[in-house]
Amino acid sequence: MESGNQTRISEFILLGLSEEAELQSLLFWLFLSMYLITFIGNLLIILAIITDSHLHTPMYFFLSNLSFTDICFISTTVPKMLLNMQMQSKVITYEGCLSQMMFSVLFGGVDNFILTVMAYDRFVAICHPLHYMVIMNPKFCGALLLASWLLNVLDSLLHGLMALQLSFCTQLEIPHFFCELNQVIQLACSDTFVNELLVYFATGLLGIIPLTGILFSYSKIVTSVLRISSASGKYKAFSTCGSHLSVVSLFYGTGLGVYLSSAVTENSRNTAIASVMYTVVTPMMNPFIYSLRNKDIKQALVKLFRWETALT
Fold first, then answer.
1. Beta pairing partners, 189
2. How many CA atoms lie within 13 A of 245 on its CB side?
3. Which pairs from 18-26 meet CB under 8 Å and 24+ separation?
4. Residue 44 lies in a domain
5. Does residue 5 have a pLDDT over 50?
6. Is residue 209 part of a domain?
7. Domain range spanning residue 230?
């Protein structure tokens, strides 16, 4: 980017989804409702898995961590948006913006990795059922989760450190409802070549490789299931990964939609609206998908509510 009037900045301006005053109240209550549904829904999934010993398996261990990550992901962006709406302010501090950028990269990346690990879990369960508990032992599951967090923490820190080297002009308006990585880079007056190169490299390494792993796992699953002779056996095998496949489709479908919308349009506001699907709607829908499509989760939630009722 061309150099311009560089200055030491202390804050950015988040333009949000709309500048129309009459829509602010509607957006506030809409996003507050979505945030509460996401937080409570994912928290119930975590509590149901913790309290039901029948769900202490690798599949639900990863699901509980996915729910935790979803809570963190949406808590990175929406509360600040709601606070700005309530305070009738669009300001976010420089430190707050970089922190929001880093945490959104972190939790979005961990979400991606956990979905990949869950696909591998389903692959082992369906294709190698006799060796499932040997392969997916607690130590290995913990190692997979730890690797997911460490890789994405390093990625997030690297993006943050590179962003600290950037100089910004006096034009500090971000046409988004949170400090998204690409939007922050585009505001810089200094050379952003290394930052953009890092974004492409990280997307390829931490985005395409996990997606390839998911596609490979499901290709093996489909091949294995088609060998099953009975229709009931095929249905039972597919039903064990139906919820996960729905979440994967929603996660990558909305993410791809945001990418395509930013590629075909110069309107950053439209990209911000599309990002709502990826950052807000997907974490909100995950508890519904797993609770509606999964009999074990339904039973665990019923037990949880009965236990809470008994306590009161």
1. none
2. 15
3. 24/85, 24/88
4. yes
5. no
6. yes
7. 11-311
Closest to 3 (Cα-Cα) out of 171, 161, 159, 163: 171
Q: What is the pLDDT of residues 268-279, one digit of tens each?
A: 666 777 788 888
pLDDT (average), residues 9-14: 88
Share of the chain above pLDDT 70, in %: 91
Average pLDDT over residues 225-243: 79
- Please state the pTM of the whole predicted model: 0.91
Residue of 76, 131, 118 whose CA lies nearest to 100: 76
Task: Examine the pLDDT at 293 and tell me if it is beyond 80.
Answer: no
DSSP string over the chain:
-----B----EEEE--S---HHHHHHHHHHHHHHHHHHHHHHHHHHHHHHH-GGG-SHHHHHHHHHHHHHHHHHHHHHHHHHHHHHHT--EEEHHHHHHHHHHHHHHHHHHHHHHHHHHHHHHHHHHSGGGHHHHT-HHHHHHHHHHHHHHHHHHHHHHHHHHHT--BBS--EESSSS--HHHHHHTBSS--HHHHHHHHHHHIIIIIHHHHHHHHHHHHHHHHHHT--SHHHHHHHHHHHHHHHHHHHHHHHHHHHHHHHHHH---HHHHHHHHHIIIIIHHHHHHHHHHHH-HHHHHHHHHHHHHHHHH-
CATH of the domain at 208: 1.20.1070.10
| 110 close to 152: Cβ distance less than 8 angstroms | yes
Query: Into how many domains does the chain fold?
Result: 1
